[in-house]
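User: What would this chain look like folded?
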Amino acid sequence: MDFEGDMKTSQTIENTTVGCSTECPAERVVDDGRAMLSSDGRYTSFSYGGSTIRFLTSPRLLRYEKVLNWDNGYLEVIANYNGKEEEEYIDLVPILENLQMDVSAFLKPIERVEVSYA
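Assistant: Here's the prediction, encoded as structure tokens.
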């Protein structure tokens, strides 16, 4: 299945209505180069260094299972959609740009991303 269309539409909607910048509280502050990726209902959360970026995602997403690759704002992940694992891609750069964040400053210290559910 291809969920890319759902993701692009959802990110655009979220960035213009609910997106947050560095003033948003982080669920967990990690200062060892690790960022955290999770989901809750229709929202994906990406947290690092005291900032949490939330954006809409596919309504079929149950949870993220594993991060396969992190490349300076571009994520390859295994996501569970209605019980079926799929490889998914998330590009944080346009989301951060829409939030008028300093993309380079935010992404540069991130060395890896892990899936984290409390």
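The mean pLDDT is 80. If you want, I can go into more detail on any region.
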